[in-house]
Amino acid sequence: xxxxxxxxxxxxxxxxxxxxxxxxxxxxxxxxxxxxxxxxxxxxxxxxxxxxxxxxxxxxxxxxxxxxxxxxxxxxxxxxxxxxxxxxxxxxxxxxxxxxxxxxxxxxxxxxxxxxxxxxxxxxxxxxxxxxxxxxxxxxxxxxxxxxxxxxxxxxxxxxxxxxxxxxxxxxxxxxxxxxxxxxxxxxxxxxxxxxxxxxxxxxxxxxxxxxxxxxxxxxxxxxxxxxxxxxxxxxxxxxxxxxxxxxxxxxxxxxxxxxxxxxxxxxxxxxxxxxxxxxxxxxxxxxxxxxxxxxxxxxxxxxxxxxxxxxxxxxxxxxxxxxxxxxxxxxxxxxxxxxxxxxxxxxxxxxxxxxxxxxxxxxxxxxxxxxxxxxxxxxxxxxxxxxxxxxxxxxxxxxxxxxxxxxxxxxxxxxxxxxxxxxxxxxxxxxxxxxxxxxxxxxxxxxxxxxxxxxxxxxxxxxxxxxxxxxxxxxxxxxxxxxxxxxxxxxxxxxxxxxxxxxxxxxxxxxxxxxxxxxxxxxxxxxxxxxxxxxxxxxxxxxxxxxxxxxxxxxxxxxxxxxxxxxxxxxxxxxxxxxxxxxxxxxxxxxxxxxxxxxxxxxxxxxxxxxxxxxxxxxxxxxxxxxxxxxxxxxxxxxxxxxxxxxxxxxxxxxxxxxxxxxxxxxxxxxxxxxxx
Amino acid sequence: xxxxxxxxxxxxxxxxxxxxxxxxxxxxxxxxxxxxxxxxxxxxxxxxxxxxxxxxxxxxxxxxxxxxxxxxxxxxxxxxxxxxxxxxxxxxxxxxxxxxxxxxxxxxxxxxxxxxxxxxxxxxxxxxxxxxxxxxxxxxxxxxxxxxxxxxxxxxxxxxxxxxxxxxxxxxxxxxxxxxxxxxxxxxxxxxxxxxxxxxxxxxxxxxx
Lengths: 678, 209
Description:
By secondary structure, chain A is an alpha/beta fold. Chain A is built from 17 helices and 16 strands. In chain A, a hairpin with a 5-residue loop joins strand 11 and strand 12 (569-573). In chain B, strand 3 (118-121) and strand 4 form a beta hairpin. At the A-B interface, helix 9 of A face helix 1, helix 5, helix 6 and helix 7 of B.
């Protein structure tokens, strides 16, 4: 558990657990420990550059003058000067700065003359060698590291343009100087201004006087730089917390936006669902109440089945009975036919017997009158003279007594049949066997009864079937009713489900984000307090130092300054309070130099600053300066430089005459009057 | 139905047939006093077939109507042949006839001969007999028709038979009869025999159309 997390938990009065705070801080990449800066020193050891000057004379001729400049430097104050301006002293500093930052402020014409630059920096114990050629004003080269002895040479980066150069120096220097990227928030996106910004703060020139610190004109940049250089331990954490907080805010905004959009979309859906509900209600109202009890329908269906089997059984019975009827009818017919044949035979016999036989068919013996008489009285056949059956004869049937019994019986029966009738009626016998007739009559009656019965049962079945069918329709109605009820329930359920809030997932996310925001805001506050606390003392001391120095540099009317944590400077002079920005450029230069020196000293003194110990100052004295104030500045700078072997201040000035007194020869490069430095 | 008629019934039929189907006698070799002659036994048998099988007669009637040789009113006659009791009472099928076997008529003919009504000339080779009706036979035949008796059905029926038979030979008549039988077999799947159902369906078709 980090101490910061504990402090934040305290701040939140236990609303969030320390564990959760720890997690949030880690996830938001907030440093939970005070970053104790380790002092890393930076110095220029050597600079060499060469090229070809191209000058146009007043005649229009172009002259080319190759040049080369080389300088070895050590700790302390170094001065490069020329009697006049534009004789190259600023370029020396600018070239060094170019090699340091990768970004160039070298004047374009100088840049076009340059061919090669070689600068060696000392970073702590290491040498960082920047070596590049200039093609078409673009830097192309590489960066090496090597030990102080010159061994262990390793290429660190290679670049082919200014962008690559910047990138290279950024990655190399930031880590080596243990510097943290300054997180800033620009247009809702976190942007890191790294080495360019830092290195910019190491130089002062007449350009860029608007900023008290550095030369990158971003709001809030100066305060970050200040806290970095002054050594506010918690400044990084504060910046990180603020940046992370802003990211959370943006996420929350997006979430809310989404919720609003969803609400609008839902509104549309709700309207649709409500329409669905009213539709379903209407459909339900439309369904007429069946009113038919299902039990009745069931009973009807069952009856249909039962009657169906009865019908089948009856039909079978009927078929069988009809068969019997047919059989009876056939038998009767046969009997009738038999009887008829008998009758015909009898009739035929009588017919023939009415004729007078003339001869024996067999032997042609004539039938005489005598024989005929015998026959009618004598009981002998007139043809064959066989004795006749008297009984039959009495019934006018001619049959021999010796005729076979069936013949005799048949003849008698036939005769009986004929005689049994009254005379006119010799019609075909319509009577048959009574028994057969009775059977037929019975069967026919039974058949008719069964047919009637079958018809009844079929009718009943049809009635039951139609009842079942209409009940089926009622069943269909029930079905419709159920369906309509279901549709209504479903639509109502859908309405309930449409809550005008965020989806649960979004809601959960929102809760998480809110908590995170709370923690980060608290962290911001906690760290800001700490930064402020730490800074307060330092700032007070610094303010004092700045005041003293600035007065020496030539602002005698300065009574005091107040350096704020945001790198603001309140200036009290001549009884009036103003700010740095409202001072004259001459005053600004002096104040800026005073601040820079004060920072240098403060950082080295307390060993808590991150100031690399390098400072370049270009042309103090170019701004309405009296000799005295310039001297004072130079002296002050020299003094500051002398306080620590790790500091290096390089000054470019036109004030050459006093330099000889102030700065030893090996520490100065001065061009003679009318001469160029290079 | 009874399998066969008695010889007396058979004799009655022969008398009725000969009286109306006979042609003039008097050819050389004919009996002296023969009046009518039936020179083809095949024809006699064929005519007798129609007399004994009202269903075949009805079928042939329908065919004659359909061919346009007989008036449409005979359709009712055909129908009556099937459904009225009289014809069916006198239905004496001749199953062997269609397979080529005659029904012997000797006993029946003897009746006619005994009463001096008819005479037969037998020809060698079987079944090429000729039949002659003598004057007593002609008279008896007339009596048969005039008599108000159940027997007079036969002379009436013979008229219908002759109407259908026209002047076809026995062979031709038999072919026609066989054709009816085979149609029925094809259509109804029945064996050669009664064709009443087929005729009924033909009648139904007629009434339907």
